[in-house]
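Quick one:
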Amino acid sequence: MTWTAPEIQFAGGSTAADERTMLAGYLAWHRSVLLTKCAGLTGEELARRTVPPSTLSLLGLIRHLAKVERIWLRERFAGEPVERLHPGTDTDFDEVDAAKAAEDYERLLAEMRTADKIFAGAALDDTFTHEGETFSVRFLYLHLIQEYARHNGHADLLRERTDGATGA
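Output:
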């Protein structure tokens, strides 16, 4: 049987809440936008590169964002000795395998859950140092929101070129 990315419950959020609630809410919303763009597509469709000459695909975005979540939250902030996902330049985008789409999708969900647990145990003003520069948890939220927002724009185009679907 062919695996298909599941339908997801779209994350809502508050437009008038404390800073922590809004940051977590916007991150959840942007994550759900990406997952919505993937919903209903097979591994083959997710791996399709539909906007040549770009090598971007929805599966590549899934792989990339799992890598980003892992690097920033687990590796850099929490200091976990985790293996780097898709090491090398652009391997997350360039070495997609439709047969491993379900595995890559589940890895992204797992990284999201782990990141949320790490966020829950940290204050916005907690900091860490990476390559001599100090970063806060607040920065991590903003960086991930920015990363998802940027790639959700790519996902819009990729999904529309895959099957014509548009919208959130």
